Structures are given as structure tokens and as C-alpha cells.
Amino acid sequence: MTTFDYGPIEFYAIGFEGDRPGPAVLQAIDDLVAAGTVNVLDLVFARRSPEGEIEVLELSDTIDDGAPALDLAGLASQDDILYLAENLEPGSSAAILVVELLWAKSFAAALYDAGGAVIAREGIPAPIVNAFLAENAD
Asked: Are 94 and 14 spatial neighbours (Cβ–Cβ below 8 Å)?
């Protein structure tokens, strides 16, 4: 059976009002890491000034204590970050998070060994799922 060093990864741009997310967001990321669900590969912050300029801040520039350990800091390129942050409104910010999906690592190896591959993937944000289910509850 094939063994991969890393499982599938996903990039997320998580938007916030103001300069940056609060400490609860970092705690939630730490909880996912501690549970073995994900491995944080890279995390940077982008913010759009009121004048419309995008500034990119490395994690080490924004957090003194309690920052998660990053396995592959720098994996998100400047082009990736600017692409993911392009829809930021002036005065808002985003956490650009790159995570390895640890739960899918052995599944990815099994797919590879079987000659299979994921050919499409679509995510649905939790607020939309929950709103839909609440509207359609019996």
C-alpha cells in the first residue's frame, strides 16, 4: 500500500471585520490540530486598508504567544494569498489557512492504489447547511 508523507490539503480564506480574528479562532484551530483532524501547514493574515490596499502579515508578525506551529510555513505563495484575499472589503481582514486533512490521508492512499482520483469536490459552508436544514425540518 502506498504511504504519502502528506494527505490532501485545502486552502481557506476566512473573512473578518476589522484587522484580524480574535483569539477564539486560533484556539479553534489548535483544537482541530489536537484532535488529529488537521495539520496546519501555513497561516497568514491579509487585510485591506480603508484605501483599498492589501497588506499581508505573517503569523509571527501578528501573534506573540499561542501561535500554532506551522509545518510548511510559506506554502501559500504571495499569488495564492492575493487571489484568496481579492474579495476583501476595505477595513476587513482574512486568515489564509492551509491545512492537511489528516482524516483523508489513508483514504487518499487507498484511492491512489486503486487507480482512483477525486475528480470534483464542492464545499458547502456550515451556516448554509444549518439554515437549509432549519428551513426544511419536519
From this structure: yes
Alpha carbon 62 to chain centroid, angstroms: 17
Q: Is 25 left (phi over 0), alpha (psi -120 to 50) or beta?
A: alpha
Sheet holding 92-101, edge to edge: 9-17, 92-101, 38-48, 54-58
pLDDT digits over 89-106, tens only?
Answer: 999 999 999 999 999 999
Domain that holds residue 58: 9-135
Q: Give the whole-angstrom CA distance, residue 123 versus residue 137.
A: 22
Residue 118 inside a domain? The answer is yes
Question: What is the pTM (predicted TM-score) of this model?
Answer: 0.80
Give me the number of domains the chain comprises.
1
